[in-house]
Specification:
There is one protein chain. With 873 residues, this protein is α+β, with helices and mostly antiparallel strands. Helix content is 36%, strand content 21%. Helix 8 runs antiparallel to helix 12 and helix 14 crosses helix 17.
Length: 873
Amino acid sequence: MNLVIVESPAKAKTINKYLGPDYKVLASYGHVRDLPSKDGSVLPDDDFAMNWEVDAKAAKRLSEIAEAAKGSSRVILATDPDREGEAISWHVLEVLQKKRALKDTEVQRVTFNAITKGAVLEAMAQPRQIDMELVDAYLARRALDYLVGFTLSPVLWRKLPGARSAGRVQSVALRIVVDREMEIERFKPQEYWSVEADLVADSPPFLARLVKHEGKRVQRLDIRDEAMAHAARAAIAAGGLTIRAIEKKPVRKSPPPPFTTSTLQQEAARKLGFTAQRTMQAAQRLYEGVDETGGLITYMRTDGVSISPEGLAQTREVIGDRFGPAYLPSEPRYYKAKAKNAQEAHEAIRPTNLTRHPDSVRLESDLQRLYELIWKRTVASQMEQARLDRTSVEVETADGRTGLRATGQVVAFDGYMAVYEEGRDERPRQGVDDEEDEGGRLPALKEGTTAKVEAIRTEQHFTEPPPRYSEATLVRKLEELGIGRPSTYASILTTLRDRNYVRMDKNRFIPEDKGRLVTAFLEQFFRKWVEYDFTAALETRLDEVSAGELDWKALLREFWTDFHAATQAAGELRTTAILDHLNEALGPHIFPEKGNGTDPRTCPTCSEGRLSLKTSRFGAFIGCSRYPDCRYTRPVSAPDAEGGSAGGGDRELGQDPVSSAPVHLKIGRFGPYVELSVPDADKPRRSSLPKGWSPASIDLERALRLLSLPREVGVHPEDGKPISAGLGRFGPFVSHAGTYANLSDIEEVFDVGLNRAIALLAEKRAGRPGRGTAAASLKELGPHPGTGEAIQVMAGRYGPYVKMGKVNATLPKGIGPEAVTLEIALPLIAAKAGSNDKAGAKQSAAKKTAAKKTAAKKAAPKKAPAKTKANAE
């Protein structure tokens, strides 16, 4: 028997069909060991020894694999063909050797780029040993990420309360987002005007734009004000325009290369609206296959843009059959990766069978759309160029001092564009010179023809800041800088969101104050390790490890020496000294100039204190130096023109419709809160913001909802005492007579109903049913019409159920305890009682069989005791 080990059960199921009865395929379910999330898992003083721990869920699967390995003549490690796949194979082999499951068993390593029968059988015929250079590169990366995270994060926790973590690549990606936001904040709009005219020249009207004024070439920002625009308008209106030149220029557009991991993530974000994580989840399922036909695409973690000879031949065959010989180049197209540090060991992402057209497969929505995108891109990459005829028409006044230009293009041959056109991230920024607008079709025109003006338009514009990063553009930026690897991009972006370092607004990354502070701290005290060039250079060094050109422990020693010294130095700094550095670094953001020459750091309340960053266990805020005499606070974000906060902090939200009193959002020592100050009240009403609600998201409506808490849900039917819903230090809850039960979601506190509240409280009072505490009754339904036994609705550990005697029947999904009637309960009880009878019969039969075996053993004659040396003598 041959044992084959892969990562996923879906992959195992498909491969097992290809290999036949002589093979047994088991799944490891991904990584089986990892470094424990505690200090000491990597030991720099012990030459970077690493203490691996078997995942609790993986332990049982590894035992099954070990048992299977003991009875196998050959163990074949067939995990994914990248560094992570090599590492999984190495981990599995290490565990099997420790379990002494191999003995004389032959161990082989095979890889295949697609889960198809041909690819799998071909790989099985070409086994190799584990590539230890790839494993060393994995070990180096894992150790680096661990050392950065577990050395730097504790410094952050102590010096910047509220900060969650730092990471080798994560922190650099965050810096990219923060740098772009600072660029946007520094941006000063510049006014400019556009001038265009509708002209006729013995032809239908066509549009022309001003390109020359007063004998000088006009670029986009050159018409700076309305006066210049009106002067240009007057020059055009004076007439005397003639078509001076018509230039027709053929243009060829080449198709984009087939997908790599990063370009697939970018294009799926542009065209399908997928996050990087969603894209990779769908791609994983397409790679593993969804039915007996096997994998639909080749391996989806790759930097390569090449296609195998077999893939090229099949692609060209599809193009010839579907589009004809005109769309098929005479020779295949070969591409080379442009990305920094690209690893081209694997081919590009493509369908495993190009003849499987998207219209011929039936998949889930995400899989269908992604497969169609990959199919079209692959086919287009091998098609003929598109040919366009681009026309430019120059129109001038008689003196040649004023000129306009009209542009247009016609698609002479669509080529690859018949199948696919690459998406764009955003339009070019206004105010930046770029290629001329392509324009539409122009009418037939002749040189020397007089052009008459039908209309002239002048329009004011302002330059715009660079756009915030989307997932697509951030992935592209990371790739351009050579930071991270295709398999890491999705997890990096997810981590930034999960840590609340950034938020998404209209699918764009906006740094939160917490993210800005972390970035400023790292730039001040760990600048080298968040530099783009340093991080990219480290990626190159890691590639040298995987190529066998550098010892992985030498790389770790080189990194650790300086990094460890920097963390020790930062750890010894007083928090006040760190905050002084951050005040300086973030000054333009948190203390912007007021425009009137006054000190932006002067406290607006007492006029004597000086504003600076403060920290609390809830995070950073801005406070007055005269605390506690002056209690002015606001969030870190800079105040806006109205005196509020650009980040949505300390500001008036509006008036309470009942009392007409103002409602404020404020930042205190214990975090953000909303406040209602009613004039005659003893003290203002306040409510802290719940977890997940950022100050920027708070408006009057949400503030009033918070201030309405606690609210009365209703009266408990047993004792007539009120049940209330509120927000406490441990989250949202319902309470009754001193019992508190947690709610699953903050939104539920505003709309939880009486029946749901009663059920939650009953479950809380019941503790954990089945462990010594009786379940609580929610509702009495009455006696069973046949037996007379009472039927009740009970609160159970796993949800409400109906009970009659010893019969417990779970309520179907969609039916709450409040909706259960005796008519609903009776068939549930009957069905459960029937299943119990069957189970009881089986159990009784099993007991009888066991009793017979026991009796047979007792009836058997006892053997005489063996003679010992003593009684033999």
